[in-house]
Design a protein that fits this description.
The protein is 18% helix and 54% strand. The radius of gyration is 28 Å and the shape is elongated. It has an eight-stranded antiparallel barrel. It has one helix at residues 10-47; strands spanning 48-63, 71-83, 87-99, 123-136, 139-152, 157-168, 175-189, 192-205. It has two domains: 6-42; 48-205, Porin, CATH 2.40.160. It is α+β, with helices and mostly antiparallel strands and 206 residues long.
């Protein structure tokens, strides 16, 4: 009697059938995900409007003891979401930013009783914000406030708060012009209180 081939063994055949079933299940799940996810994304986009704005401008800082070069560049970004319909709505967002002095060629200023006057530090911000947005045919205006984490370059970190105002033009091909202004207060950052402000202009993607 001729010996059966390995593929004729019951255990091997069962393993092949199991692999086929598993492969079919994976392909079916991938097909269902490919069919369902776009519909979910479309439904979500129809209900919510998410945007990202980035602005560049000038900043100024107060506090922090004796400092020089308190003004400098500022870069800000805001990721926010609100209902898609025009009108007055609640808006939620995550704001990030960095500001700092331009620095100077002279490391320190020699003042009576003070060995060195450092530059105003570069400060990074990360905030969770909420507020209101009014959107119409002429664009949008939004005001957001919320707790913020401040971190000084080469120093410590602290909690505080910030307020952010943005004016946005009507979008053209999903791109809009943005004018922003923000102010913040950091408590006990490197054992000092800091007051930060910035204005900027940039673009938003909708």
């Amino acid at each position: 009697m001729a010996a059966g081939s390995p593929t004729d063994r019951p255990g091997t055949a069962g393993h092949d059938r199991g692999a086929l079933v598993a492969t079919s299940a994976v392909l079916l799940a991938a097909f269902c995900a490919g069919a369902v996810l776009p519909a979910c994304v479309t439904a979500q986009e129809s209900a919510r409007l998410t945007s990202f704005e980035a602005t560049y401008g000038r900043s100024y800082g107060q506090g922090g003891g004796a400092r020089q070069n308190r003004d400098g560049p500022a870069l800000d970004g805001l990721l926010s979401s609100r209902p898609r319909q025009p009108g007055l709505h609640l808006v939620f967002g995550i704001g990030v930013g960095v500001q700092g002095s331009n620095g100077s060629d002279v490391a320190c200023l020699n003042l009576p009783g003070i060995d060195c006057v450092p530059d105003f530090p570069k400060v990074y911000t990360l905030g969770i914000l909420a507020g209101a947005e009014k959107r119409g045919r002429f664009g949008a205006a939004r005001l957001l406030v919320g707790p913020t984490h401040f971190r000084a370059d080469g120093g410590g970190s602290a909690l505080g708060g910030q307020a952010r105002l943005e004016l946005v033009s009507p979008p053209a091909h999903r791109i809009a012009a943005v004018l922003s202004a923000r102010g913040g207060l950091a408590w006990n950052l490197d054992r000092q209180d800091y007051r930060l402000g910035a204005i900027g202009i940039g673009l938003g993607l909708y």
